């Protein structure tokens, strides 16, 4: 199979579970605590609305992937349908967002570990996690 050919082996169920897995993360658990504490159970209604919007976006992206299998990233789809400038902006916006999410995850990890081990500073746990993650490279 050449580099240009794409094997269509993902089903709709696979794509839906990929979307669900990408939505669940550290921020969901840590961010929910403060929101629920401030607003109460009405936060669930807000999560349902945002979840529905994200569901529509992910279904649209899934349709793009199934109908136009030439792109490798959603930045490629932005380039195809909106132009190269939008593809460039989309790619860099996603890269910056991933950096911010990584920093937020590291911070949340330090806060969680501080809860269980209050005598150890958060920066120690963050440093250990960074070291362990760098071992994967």
Automatic annotation (TrEMBL):
This protein's record includes keyword Nucleotide-binding: no
Location in the cell reads: Cell membrane
The residues that cross the membrane are 12-31, 38-58, 92-113, 120-136
InterPro entries named among the record's database cross-references: AA-permease/SLC12A_dom
Which parts form a coiled-coil structure per UniProt? none
**What's the short name of a Pfam family annotated to this entry?**
AA_permease
Key words, A-Z: Amino-acid transport, Cell membrane, Membrane, Transmembrane, Transmembrane helix, Transport
GO biological process terms held by the UniProt record? amino acid transport; transmembrane transport
Q: What is its main location?
A: membrane
Q: Which GO terms describe its cellular component?
A: plasma membrane
The UniProt record lists the Amino acid permease/ SLC12A domain at 14-134
Protein name per the record: Proline-specific permease ProY
